[in-house]
Structure formats: C-alpha cells, structure tokens
Amino acid sequence: MESLDQIIARISAALPEAKVTIVPNPALPAQSSLLLGHETAVAVAQVLRDDAALRLDYCSNVTGIDWPERVIKSTVKTKQIVDGVEKEVSTPHEEFQPNYLEAVYHLFSMSLKHGPVVIRMRTADRAEQCHVPSLTPVWKSAEFQEREAFDLFGIRFDGHPDLRRILMWDEFTDFPMRKDYREPDDYDYEPTAHDEIVEKAARHAATPAQPFAGA
C-alpha cells in the first residue's frame, strides 16, 4: 500500500486543483487520514476508486464526529537564555478550535487486497452550515451509512439520492450522537411514567449542560 504522500501525488497528477491534506493521528494505531476539500471531493473519490495502483473500490464504513468549540492545551518547548545559560523552557499554549462536524470514510481495495485509507470532510460549522458532498455516487455502500450520519449527527450530504432519517422517527428534531445532546424528559410517541419524568427533570436541573472541553 502506498503512503499518504504518494496517494496525494497521484491525486494531484490527476486533479491539480484538488485540495487534499494529511491529518496526522499520533494516537495508536497512528492511522493518519486525508482531509478533502468540498469542491473536488467527489472527483478525488473517483481517483481513489479508479486509479490502477489504488483501486479503493469498497467503502466499508462511514461515520460522523462532533467537534464543539474547544480550547486545546499543550506545552511549547523553546530554547531561552536563563542566567547566561541556554535552557529548554516549557511554556503553556492554548489554541482555540471552532466547532464543526466531520464525515469519516474507511476505504479498502477488494481487488488489490489493501487498505484502509481513511478520508474525511469537515462542515463549516455544526449549526446552519453543516453540509458536505455525498460520496454515494462513487461508493454505493455509503448510501445508508451517510443517512445514519445525517440522522445521528446532523451532517447534510449534498447530492445524496435519499437523505432522510434511518434510525430516528421523521418528527424527531435533534441529533443523539452530538456531544451536547440531552435526552428529553418525555417522548410524544411513547408517554413516560409520571414519576420517571419528574426524576429525569430533577436530574437535568441539578446537572446543567456543560460546554465540551475535550481535545
């Protein structure tokens, strides 16, 4: 299997205008991924599927990730002169990250027996501008899985042939896999016992929703 740098080189040769960057993943198993720009995402997906050395003809998994606004804390090490001696000094660093949703795809080649290659797309935010292009025209197996990501995360896949809820009922208005989701005290379709409603409401009042602070 070629490296991600080599894959990007193949994409650039076929689509010079394509926007593709590597998203590193330092955690085990250190599986970095490719971030696709919206304008050329479908064309890039076709290259990944049709290039003779890649043949990523099978999309095994599509999922969503919710990233609320957050502050990432880290430590920056610099060389400084302290009392006439050069020393390594650690300085706290904070970086603000805006909110967005991600659609993540795991690709394999059934014909060449390699993979996965992980690709992802990001929405502009997690409110009004939560759109990404659908890759169902390239991988038919993404159809139901994109519907699931729409249903549970609220990612809107432009160009999807049948984008509607697949797990929740049509009248449901929230997205259960978002990090700030709170289960309602009662459901219209199946009334909850009175004592349970009172217990849930009291529990929710005692523990108000907290802003997401994870990295």
Structure overview:
The protein is of the alpha/beta class and 215 residues long. 21% of the residues lie in helices and 32% in strands. The strands form 3 sheets. Strands 1-2-7-6-3 form a 5-stranded mixed beta sheet, with helices on one face. Strands 4-5 form a two-stranded antiparallel sheet.
Supply the number of structural domains: 2
Query: Which residue ranges are poorly predicted, with pLDDT under 50 across at least 5 consecutive positions?
Result: 211-215
Q: Could you give me the name of the CATH homologous superfamily of the largest domain?
A: NADH:ubiquinone oxidoreductase Nqo5 subunit
Gap from first CA to last CA = 30 Å
Q: How is the main sheet built?
A: 5 strands, mixed
CATH topology of the largest domain: Beta Polymerase, domain 2
Helix content: 10-25%
Inertia-based shape: flat
Instruction: Encode the helix/strand succession as letters.
Output: HEEHEEEEEEHEH
CATH class of the largest domain, named Alpha Beta
CATH architecture level-2 label of the largest domain: 2-Layer Sandwich
Number of helices: 4
Give the structural class. Answer: alpha/beta
Mean of pLDDT: 88
For the secondary structure, the number of strands is: 9
Radius of gyration: 22 Å
Fraction in beta strands: 25-35%
Strand order of the largest sheet: 1-2-7-6-3
